[in-house]
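Reopening this one. Same input as before:
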Amino acid sequence: MIPRLIQKRLERDLELYPAVVLLGARQAGKTTLALKIREKLNGIYLDLESPRDVAKLQDSELYLSEHLDHLVILDEVHRIPEIFPVLRSLIDKARRQGKKQGLYLLLGSASLNVVQQSGESLAGRVTYSELTPFSLLEIPPEKKEILWVRGGFPESYLASDETISMRWRQDLIRTYIERDVRAFDIRLTSETIRRLWVMLAHLQGTNVNIAQLARNLDIDVKTVNRYIEILISLFLLRRLPPWYVNTGKRLTKSPKWYVRDSGLLHALLGITDREALLSHPILGQSWEGFVIEQIYSALQKIAELYYYRTSAGAEIDLLILWPDQSFWAIEIKRSLQPKPSRGFYSACEDLHPLRRYVVYAGKERYTTASGIEAIALRELLEKIMRKIREK
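Same output, byte for byte:
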């Protein structure tokens, strides 16, 4: 097992809260991590997609009340929404008995359902974390390109060759389309859902015109928005919001969209290996999305992410807004000789960020004549982790 950076945080949260919700995409490694924690803490694991385990919960209050002295892990908890009021009752019962922490670890691959259900029933009793697929800090440095091409899903990243990795990702996409997405809404055919996802892949890192997308699919705008929200809920699509600031300039106010996992992006576009990617028009947007996801994974929701763009061409690919309201401005370049764009300089004059970086594909770190720091992605992630630990 490749150690996951989030494990220590989860164990710490279990020492502080009665219930911890671990969210993340299907096949990202939630179950493997939960079983590791069960082994360490002597817990009980129930898979709510298993008929045998579901049968144990026919009288869920009786069964769970008999295990208040153990950590109980409930996998795919959104499959049984009626269990959340029971968990609230048992948490309150355990509190009266003096046990206030580490009762439940709840796993879910559909954030919309789990957050809504747990938020309504477990308010004040629960905290949330997200397990992303493998991050750059969890793998050997020399495997960076493999992670970028194949994505971070464990079965894809660890596959013995590119063909097996691609086939696994194609099967995962099919599972999402035919099962998970349609479980939310069955108005669209599987083929239409696939076309929508592929179109979004082609528009990676852009301001998507939803109305045009709806016309291309011959469906209404409301339906497109509904399915985009589903893809976000399933941790498959990221909405990067624009930063609004009163600079007296005309700002871009629509979000940018990214297929979150680079491996799924490449599978949707039929990009089979690194050589095919390097000659594909999506190259720059793929690298940009990869960098953003790695930064998101390192931040652990401690800071917020935005982009900035004006109609005059001033632009920052990524803004990190820290809790103290300071900014890091990041330009993302695939080139080995990164040169910040004129728009980046203009945007920095507007926002006065605390730090200015150009993340690029090289290894050396240096400062340009204008004071902008060129830095490798892994080194930037390590700087982010050090800043988080300092807090």
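So the earlier flakiness isn't reproducible anymore. For the record, The first helix runs from residue 6 to 14.
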